[in-house]
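Friendly challenge for the regulars: who can give me the C-alpha coordinates for this chain first? No prize, just bragging rights.
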Amino acid sequence: MSTRAGFVALIGEPNAGKSTLLNRMVGAKVSIVTHKVQTTRARIRGVAMQGDSQIVFVDTPGLFQPRRRLDRAMVAAAWGGAADADIVVLMVEAHRGVTEGVERILEGLSDIGEGRTVALAINKIDRVAAETLLALSQDLNERYSFAGTFMISAERGHGVDDLRQWLATEVPEGPFLYPEDQIADLPVRMIAAEMTREKLTLRLHQELPYQLTVETEKWEERKDGSARIDQLVYVVRDGHKGIVLGHKGETIKAVSKAAREELEEFLGRRVHLFLQVKVRPNWLEEAERYSEMGLEFRDGNN
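First reply, four minutes later:
Bragging rights claimed.
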Protein backbone atom coordinates (compact mmCIF):
# COMPACT_ATOMS: atom_id res chain seq x y z
CA MET A 1 0.00 0.00 0.00
CA SER A 2 1.50 3.33 -1.01
CA THR A 3 1.07 6.26 1.32
CA ARG A 4 1.23 9.99 0.75
CA ALA A 5 2.29 12.79 3.07
CA GLY A 6 3.08 16.45 2.66
CA PHE A 7 2.88 19.96 4.05
CA VAL A 8 0.03 22.32 3.18
CA ALA A 9 0.33 26.02 3.99
CA LEU A 10 -2.83 28.02 4.55
CA ILE A 11 -2.25 31.67 3.67
CA GLY A 12 -4.46 34.71 3.43
CA GLU A 13 -5.31 37.99 5.06
CA PRO A 14 -5.94 38.15 8.81
CA ASN A 15 -9.36 36.74 9.73
CA ALA A 16 -9.75 34.92 6.40
CA GLY A 17 -10.67 31.78 8.36
CA LYS A 18 -7.38 29.87 8.23
CA SER A 19 -7.45 28.73 11.87
CA THR A 20 -11.12 27.73 11.61
CA LEU A 21 -10.36 25.66 8.49
CA LEU A 22 -7.34 24.03 10.14
CA ASN A 23 -9.39 23.03 13.18
CA ARG A 24 -12.19 21.71 10.93
CA MET A 25 -9.72 19.70 8.82
CA VAL A 26 -7.93 18.18 11.81
CA GLY A 27 -11.10 17.65 13.84
CA ALA A 28 -9.65 19.20 16.98
CA LYS A 29 -8.82 22.65 18.22
CA VAL A 30 -5.12 23.19 17.59
CA SER A 31 -5.13 26.79 16.44
CA ILE A 32 -6.80 29.56 18.40
CA VAL A 33 -9.76 31.23 16.76
CA THR A 34 -10.91 34.75 17.63
CA HIS A 35 -12.56 37.56 15.73
CA LYS A 36 -9.43 39.66 16.03
CA VAL A 37 -6.84 40.06 13.34
CA GLN A 38 -3.36 38.58 13.67
CA THR A 39 -4.30 36.09 16.38
CA THR A 40 -2.07 33.31 15.07
CA ARG A 41 1.59 33.99 15.76
CA ALA A 42 3.41 30.70 15.45
CA ARG A 43 3.33 28.33 12.51
CA ILE A 44 1.05 25.78 14.14
CA ARG A 45 0.87 22.46 12.37
CA GLY A 46 -2.23 20.31 12.46
CA VAL A 47 -2.14 16.76 11.13
CA ALA A 48 -5.13 15.31 9.25
CA MET A 49 -5.52 11.76 7.98
CA GLN A 50 -7.48 11.13 4.78
CA GLY A 51 -7.40 7.54 3.57
CA ASP A 52 -3.76 6.61 2.94
CA SER A 53 -2.67 10.24 2.98
CA GLN A 54 -1.37 12.39 5.81
CA ILE A 55 -1.86 16.14 5.37
CA VAL A 56 0.26 18.33 7.62
CA PHE A 57 -1.21 21.82 7.80
CA VAL A 58 0.93 24.86 8.44
CA ASP A 59 -1.32 27.57 9.86
CA THR A 60 0.49 30.80 9.11
CA PRO A 61 -0.10 34.25 10.56
CA GLY A 62 -2.36 36.43 8.44
CA LEU A 63 -0.52 38.41 5.78
CA PHE A 64 -0.79 42.14 6.29
CA GLN A 65 1.31 45.30 6.00
CA PRO A 66 3.90 45.00 8.80
CA ARG A 67 4.65 47.96 11.08
CA ARG A 68 6.47 46.62 14.13
CA ARG A 69 9.10 44.00 14.80
CA LEU A 70 6.48 41.41 15.80
CA ASP A 71 4.52 42.24 12.62
CA ARG A 72 7.60 41.69 10.48
CA ALA A 73 8.38 38.39 12.19
CA MET A 74 4.81 37.17 11.67
CA VAL A 75 4.75 38.10 7.97
CA ALA A 76 8.16 36.47 7.45
CA ALA A 77 6.85 33.31 9.16
CA ALA A 78 3.81 33.28 6.89
CA TRP A 79 5.84 33.49 3.70
CA GLY A 80 8.39 31.04 5.11
CA GLY A 81 5.60 28.55 5.73
CA ALA A 82 4.33 28.96 2.19
CA ALA A 83 7.79 28.60 0.66
CA ASP A 84 8.48 25.39 2.62
CA ALA A 85 5.15 23.70 1.84
CA ASP A 86 4.32 21.20 -0.88
CA ILE A 87 0.93 22.83 -1.48
CA VAL A 88 -0.30 26.35 -0.74
CA VAL A 89 -3.97 27.15 -0.18
CA LEU A 90 -4.88 30.82 -0.55
CA MET A 91 -7.99 31.69 1.44
CA VAL A 92 -10.06 34.65 0.32
CA GLU A 93 -13.20 35.90 2.07
CA ALA A 94 -16.12 35.80 -0.37
CA HIS A 95 -17.75 39.00 0.89
CA ARG A 96 -14.51 41.02 0.86
CA GLY A 97 -13.33 39.94 -2.59
CA VAL A 98 -10.03 41.10 -4.07
CA THR A 99 -8.71 43.62 -1.54
CA GLU A 100 -5.35 45.37 -1.64
CA GLY A 101 -4.10 42.71 0.75
CA VAL A 102 -5.18 39.89 -1.56
CA GLU A 103 -3.47 41.64 -4.47
CA ARG A 104 -0.23 41.85 -2.42
CA ILE A 105 -0.48 38.13 -1.62
CA LEU A 106 -0.99 37.24 -5.30
CA GLU A 107 2.18 39.17 -6.12
CA GLY A 108 4.01 37.36 -3.32
CA LEU A 109 2.87 33.97 -4.61
CA SER A 110 4.66 34.67 -7.86
CA ASP A 111 7.90 35.16 -5.90
CA ILE A 112 8.02 31.89 -3.94
CA GLY A 113 8.93 29.70 -6.88
CA GLU A 114 7.51 28.21 -10.02
CA GLY A 115 5.99 24.77 -10.07
CA ARG A 116 4.40 24.97 -6.62
CA THR A 117 0.82 23.70 -6.40
CA VAL A 118 -1.43 26.55 -5.28
CA ALA A 119 -5.17 26.12 -4.67
CA LEU A 120 -7.79 28.80 -4.07
CA ALA A 121 -10.34 28.44 -1.27
CA ILE A 122 -13.08 31.07 -1.30
CA ASN A 123 -14.38 31.07 2.27
CA LYS A 124 -17.59 32.29 3.93
CA ILE A 125 -19.60 31.49 0.80
CA ASP A 126 -22.85 31.73 2.75
CA ARG A 127 -22.42 35.51 2.88
CA VAL A 128 -22.78 36.24 -0.84
CA ALA A 129 -24.95 35.32 -3.82
CA ALA A 130 -23.91 32.56 -6.24
CA GLU A 131 -23.27 34.95 -9.13
CA THR A 132 -20.93 37.03 -6.95
CA LEU A 133 -18.99 33.89 -6.07
CA LEU A 134 -18.61 32.89 -9.71
CA ALA A 135 -17.44 36.35 -10.70
CA LEU A 136 -14.89 36.42 -7.86
CA SER A 137 -13.60 32.95 -8.78
CA GLN A 138 -13.21 33.97 -12.42
CA ASP A 139 -11.44 37.22 -11.46
CA LEU A 140 -8.94 35.44 -9.17
CA ASN A 141 -8.23 32.65 -11.67
CA GLU A 142 -7.47 35.24 -14.32
CA ARG A 143 -4.93 36.83 -11.96
CA TYR A 144 -3.21 33.57 -10.96
CA SER A 145 -3.10 30.02 -12.33
CA PHE A 146 -4.62 28.03 -9.47
CA ALA A 147 -4.46 24.23 -9.54
CA GLY A 148 -7.96 24.03 -8.07
CA THR A 149 -10.72 26.32 -6.78
CA PHE A 150 -12.92 25.40 -3.82
CA MET A 151 -16.00 27.15 -2.45
CA ILE A 152 -16.11 26.56 1.30
CA SER A 153 -17.51 27.62 4.62
CA ALA A 154 -14.84 26.70 7.18
CA GLU A 155 -17.19 27.55 10.02
CA ARG A 156 -20.10 25.41 8.79
CA GLY A 157 -18.00 22.74 7.10
CA HIS A 158 -19.41 23.19 3.57
CA GLY A 159 -16.94 22.11 0.89
CA VAL A 160 -14.22 21.24 3.42
CA ASP A 161 -14.34 17.49 2.69
CA ASP A 162 -13.87 18.12 -1.04
CA LEU A 163 -10.82 20.27 -0.34
CA ARG A 164 -9.34 17.70 2.06
CA GLN A 165 -9.86 14.85 -0.43
CA TRP A 166 -8.20 16.88 -3.18
CA LEU A 167 -5.24 17.69 -0.94
CA ALA A 168 -4.92 13.99 -0.06
CA THR A 169 -4.39 13.15 -3.74
CA GLU A 170 -2.00 16.06 -4.32
CA VAL A 171 0.52 15.60 -1.49
CA PRO A 172 3.63 13.65 -2.55
CA GLU A 173 3.96 9.88 -2.26
CA GLY A 174 6.00 8.90 0.77
CA PRO A 175 5.90 7.66 4.37
CA PHE A 176 3.86 9.42 7.04
CA LEU A 177 5.66 12.31 8.70
CA TYR A 178 3.98 11.94 12.10
CA PRO A 179 2.37 9.12 14.11
CA GLU A 180 -1.17 8.52 12.84
CA ASP A 181 -2.76 9.54 16.16
CA GLN A 182 -0.88 12.83 16.46
CA ILE A 183 -2.88 15.96 15.65
CA ALA A 184 -0.27 18.69 16.14
CA ASP A 185 3.49 19.00 16.48
CA LEU A 186 3.25 21.84 18.96
CA PRO A 187 4.23 20.89 22.51
CA VAL A 188 1.09 20.57 24.60
CA ARG A 189 2.50 23.27 26.91
CA MET A 190 2.33 25.75 24.04
CA ILE A 191 -1.17 24.66 23.02
CA ALA A 192 -2.24 25.25 26.63
CA ALA A 193 -0.71 28.74 26.58
CA GLU A 194 -2.43 29.53 23.28
CA MET A 195 -5.80 28.48 24.69
CA THR A 196 -5.38 30.88 27.61
CA ARG A 197 -4.25 33.66 25.27
CA GLU A 198 -7.37 33.11 23.16
CA LYS A 199 -9.59 33.54 26.21
CA LEU A 200 -7.75 36.73 27.19
CA THR A 201 -8.04 38.11 23.65
CA LEU A 202 -11.77 37.40 23.53
CA ARG A 203 -12.39 38.84 26.97
CA LEU A 204 -10.36 42.03 26.58
CA HIS A 205 -11.69 42.98 23.13
CA GLN A 206 -9.80 46.04 21.82
CA GLU A 207 -7.93 46.83 25.03
CA LEU A 208 -4.90 44.54 24.70
CA PRO A 209 -5.00 42.72 21.37
CA TYR A 210 -1.25 42.54 20.95
CA GLN A 211 0.36 43.59 24.19
CA LEU A 212 0.32 40.29 26.02
CA THR A 213 1.70 36.82 25.73
CA VAL A 214 1.20 33.67 27.78
CA GLU A 215 3.79 31.10 28.79
CA THR A 216 3.28 27.76 30.49
CA GLU A 217 5.82 27.96 33.31
CA LYS A 218 5.20 24.63 35.08
CA TRP A 219 3.34 21.43 34.27
CA GLU A 220 2.94 18.93 37.06
CA GLU A 221 1.38 15.50 36.56
CA ARG A 222 -0.50 14.46 39.70
CA LYS A 223 -1.04 10.97 41.06
CA ASP A 224 -4.81 11.21 40.65
CA GLY A 225 -4.36 11.67 36.87
CA SER A 226 -4.99 15.42 36.90
CA ALA A 227 -2.49 18.09 35.87
CA ARG A 228 -1.46 21.29 37.61
CA ILE A 229 -0.58 23.97 35.06
CA ASP A 230 1.04 27.28 36.07
CA GLN A 231 1.04 30.00 33.44
CA LEU A 232 2.50 33.50 33.28
CA VAL A 233 0.67 36.29 31.46
CA TYR A 234 3.16 38.96 30.38
CA VAL A 235 2.00 42.53 29.75
CA VAL A 236 4.09 45.56 28.83
CA ARG A 237 2.96 48.07 31.48
CA ASP A 238 1.39 48.32 34.92
CA GLY A 239 -1.88 49.74 33.55
CA HIS A 240 -2.30 46.63 31.43
CA LYS A 241 -1.89 44.40 34.47
CA GLY A 242 -4.93 46.03 36.06
CA ILE A 243 -6.97 45.48 32.89
CA VAL A 244 -6.05 41.78 32.78
CA LEU A 245 -6.82 41.27 36.46
CA GLY A 246 -10.10 43.25 36.32
CA HIS A 247 -12.14 44.60 39.23
CA LYS A 248 -11.42 42.42 42.27
CA GLY A 249 -9.72 39.91 39.96
CA GLU A 250 -12.95 39.12 38.10
CA THR A 251 -11.43 39.19 34.60
CA ILE A 252 -8.54 36.84 35.32
CA LYS A 253 -10.86 34.48 37.22
CA ALA A 254 -13.27 34.28 34.27
CA VAL A 255 -10.38 33.76 31.83
CA SER A 256 -8.85 31.06 34.02
CA LYS A 257 -12.19 29.22 34.30
CA ALA A 258 -12.83 29.32 30.54
CA ALA A 259 -9.27 28.23 29.71
CA ARG A 260 -9.35 25.44 32.31
CA GLU A 261 -12.63 24.05 30.96
CA GLU A 262 -11.30 23.99 27.41
CA LEU A 263 -8.04 22.40 28.52
CA GLU A 264 -9.93 19.69 30.38
CA GLU A 265 -11.95 18.93 27.27
CA PHE A 266 -8.80 18.90 25.11
CA LEU A 267 -6.77 16.70 27.49
CA GLY A 268 -9.68 14.55 28.62
CA ARG A 269 -8.88 14.95 32.34
CA ARG A 270 -9.03 17.34 35.25
CA VAL A 271 -6.83 20.42 35.17
CA HIS A 272 -5.82 22.81 37.96
CA LEU A 273 -4.87 26.06 36.21
CA PHE A 274 -3.08 28.92 37.97
CA LEU A 275 -2.49 32.23 36.18
CA GLN A 276 -0.12 34.97 37.29
CA VAL A 277 0.17 38.37 35.58
CA LYS A 278 3.61 39.97 35.30
CA VAL A 279 4.76 43.26 33.82
CA ARG A 280 7.58 42.76 31.33
CA PRO A 281 8.03 46.07 29.49
CA ASN A 282 10.23 44.80 26.67
CA TRP A 283 8.81 41.38 25.90
CA LEU A 284 7.98 42.52 22.35
CA GLU A 285 11.72 43.12 21.85
CA GLU A 286 13.05 39.90 23.42
CA ALA A 287 14.48 37.32 21.03
CA GLU A 288 13.62 34.49 23.46
CA ARG A 289 9.88 35.25 23.28
CA TYR A 290 10.00 35.05 19.49
CA SER A 291 11.73 31.67 19.40
CA GLU A 292 9.12 30.33 21.85
CA MET A 293 6.42 31.41 19.39
CA GLY A 294 8.27 29.78 16.49
CA LEU A 295 9.11 33.17 14.98
CA GLU A 296 12.38 34.61 13.80
CA PHE A 297 13.68 37.63 15.74
CA ARG A 298 14.37 40.19 13.05
CA ASP A 299 16.47 43.31 13.54
CA GLY A 300 15.64 46.72 12.12
CA ASN A 301 13.50 46.65 9.01
CA ASN A 302 14.42 43.13 7.90
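Confidence is low (pLDDT under 50) at residues 32-42. The CA atoms of residues 201 and 209 lie 6 Å apart. Your move, everyone else.
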